């Protein structure tokens, strides 16, 4: 009739160590799965050319591409929307700069995702397309090198991740 009170079972040292090991193993595996999600990546919104434009870099298949999503001065001297007037191809000169894809085909060159190569970058100011590489420096800075032929014959520009600009400016 009376129910028996449950007894408290104290685990042995061996069982305690097995339990702690299982927790450690589970945490390590979970951390390994989650960490790449938070690792620095070039995907995101970047200030280009000293803040004159914002470029959204995104995954395009197994490569990266990027388009202009904001311009500091989106209008020309007549008050009209800026277009791709310097393009060598006359049929493309009426394209608006806003929304123009300027980065294409950047492929990861290392397992850490810090270096991307073999892409192209289009410079709307000159109307020229260059081969380019990019290197991620920390979480909020990337160095993009555009060149003709070999990387030695080119120019590197630094882009800053949108939203991180004030963290970079410490006295």
Describe it for me?
The protein has 171 residues and is α+β, with helices and mostly antiparallel strands. The protein has one domain: Lipocalin, CATH 2.40.128. It is built from two helices and eight strands, in the order αββββββββα. It has an eight-stranded antiparallel beta barrel with strand order 1-2-3-4-5-6-7-8. A hairpin with a 2-residue loop joins β2 (53-60) and β3 (63-71). The longest helix is centred in the first third of the chain and has 26 residues, at 13-38.
Structural class: alpha+beta
Give the terminus-to-terminus CA distance.
78 Å
What Rg, in angstroms, do the CA atoms define?
26 Å
How much helix is in the residues? 10-25%
Overall, the morphology is: elongated
Point out poorly predicted stretches. 28-38
User: Order of SSEs, N→C?
Assistant: HEEEEEEEEH
Report the β-strand fraction as a percent range: 35-45%
Number of strands: 8
């Amino acid at each position: 009739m009376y129910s028996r009170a449950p007894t408290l079972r104290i685990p042995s040292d061996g069982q305690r160590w097995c339990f702690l090991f299982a927790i450690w193993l589970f945490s390590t595996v979970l951390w390994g799965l989650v960490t790449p999600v938070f690792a620095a990546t070039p995907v995101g919104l970047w200030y280009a050319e000293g803040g004159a434009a914002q470029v959204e870099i995104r995954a395009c298949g197994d490569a990266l591409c990027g388009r202009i999503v904001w311009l500091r001065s989106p209008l020309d001297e007549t008050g009209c929307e800026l277009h791709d007037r310097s393009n060598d191809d006359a049929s493309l000169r009426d394209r608006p700069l806003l929304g123009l894809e300027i980065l294409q085909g950047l492929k990861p060159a290392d397992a850490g995702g810090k270096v991307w190569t073999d892409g192209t970058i289009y410079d709307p100011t000159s109307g020229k397309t260059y081969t380019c590489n990019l290197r991620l420096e920390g979480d909020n800075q990337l160095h993009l090198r555009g060149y003709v032929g070999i990387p030695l014959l080119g120019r590197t520009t630094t882009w800053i991740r949108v939203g991180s600009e004030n963290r970079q400016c410490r006295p």
